[in-house]
Amino acid sequence: MDFSVINNGCEPITKTFRAYLHVDGTSKSKQYDSNLSVNAQASVTDYSAGKSPVRANTIKVVLYAANAIDMITRSDSTFTRSIPVFYRVQPIHQPHALA
């Protein structure tokens, strides 16, 4: 799984903030970052959140600044997406008996 956060504000971020990854309500990862310039992004790539059950799973990324960063609106500090997980059954090929 890959995810990233972007500073789309007017000022660079110079204090540490946290990005939490939740899968189905369970915290899976905490990423810490600081010094994020305007329009710059901090990314996490190829993170394994473990096995997911076969169903719709909810992925949520929450940014938490511990009141260290002034945020005009907090509505853009959480991202939630539901993703389906499928599995495919492989057919079993059995040889036919010759009569």
Shape: elongated
Radius of gyration: 20 Å
Average per-residue pLDDT, rounded, comes to 77
What is the annotated CATH architecture? Sandwich
Give the number of domains: 1
CATH fold group: Immunoglobulin-like
Q: Which regions contain 5 or more consecutive residues with pLDDT less than 50?
A: none
Which range best describes the helical content: under 10%, 10-25%, 25-40%, 40-55%, 55-70% or over 70%? under 10%
Class inferred from helices and paired strands: mainly beta
Structure overview:
The structure is a single chain. With 99 residues, the chain is an all-beta fold. The protein has a single domain, classed as Immunoglobulin-like (Sandwich), CATH 2.60.40.10. Helices cover 0% and strands 39% of the residues. The chain is built from no helices and six strands. The chain has strands spanning 3-6, 17-23, 26-33, 41-44, 56-64, 78-84. The strands form two sheets. It has a four-stranded antiparallel sheet with strand order 3-2-5-6, with no helix packed on it. It has a two-stranded antiparallel sheet with strand order 1-4. The chain is elongated and about 75 Å long. It starts with a strand and ends in a 15-residue tail after the last strand. The mean pLDDT is 77.
